[in-house]
């Protein structure tokens, strides 16, 4: 196949496809037998999409007359799909390092929240920050996520709680979408907390009557492009009925439902999400058995966040039960001032150790299933012809090192590639072995 192409990765020791037959997602049994090619190559075209995947000698013959902008010899290395982080809060000002000491001393999440800390502390600082200040810190955070292998990230607003600041955050996210080589799924999360001076009902009315109509207007004008709507459905925050009203109103203007549910108290959020046709629900530490069954039936993804349960010392989400019941399980870092983790490899490690997932299940949850949770598994999450050329190369002869080496990704990830373009090259990998 003659012609010019953007990238050739050749001679990979292992090429982990994740999917080989165009699957939208993988359940437990599908994750058990991941397709892995040995001595394999990948070609990415000038349009940023994968043109061919296969054995190195077959690809060599098929593209014998072709030229490539870049060729990378992956001998002794592994190639995997770019990782997908299905839940983050990366746009904010004012860190909460002081609250970590309070948590270690025994203060609960809601105790800190009620004392004026938590979300409200971040809201105060984010409202004061300029758009430029927010963009600069956001850009830095995205770069750190990318260096840890994430090539598609869900990014929420939610530290404004008023229309002006929520839109400021969404503009920052839109700017990064347009200017950075990383995939972004944008989420409006104006119902992240009840603003000071308002009741939950007043906040709900404000979102439905003011925020969402403005959002629709800006979407139609092309100024911003928002993908998902999120609500923190929780005792003392937004109850089930308020959550229903906001999510339905968001769905009515074309947003995917992807919300926080059943984290600190059993709220029947999972049942509600299944009923409304939610694409995904996050957290689910307190989900009911009925909720798990409903999510499996509705093909609603469970975005599990092992960092949150770990840092807040919460009960771990029931990953094994969800997998056994046929739920689509995805993973996210929940990066935010309360759970400061950029690294999906560390999230996968915690998912295996604390939630008893297998390494195959964790990789599936951080690739194709996380992409499904964002409505993007047709273009992301696996190495298949026609999909976007988002890839990572690790300096190891076995892909499992990406999960096994807790915190080792900084020396292990050799290249991060988005749309066939190298966006990060780790010079350390030239001299260091994964062993």
UniProtKB/TrEMBL annotation:
Signal peptide: none annotated. The keyword Transport does not apply. Its cofactor is Fe(3+). Coiled coil: none annotated. It catalyses: 4-imidazolone-5-propanoate + H2O = N-formimidoyl-L-glutamate. The gene is Amdhd1. Residues 79-423 form the Amidohydrolase-related domain. GO terms for molecular function: imidazolonepropionase activity; metal ion binding. This is Probable imidazolonepropionase.
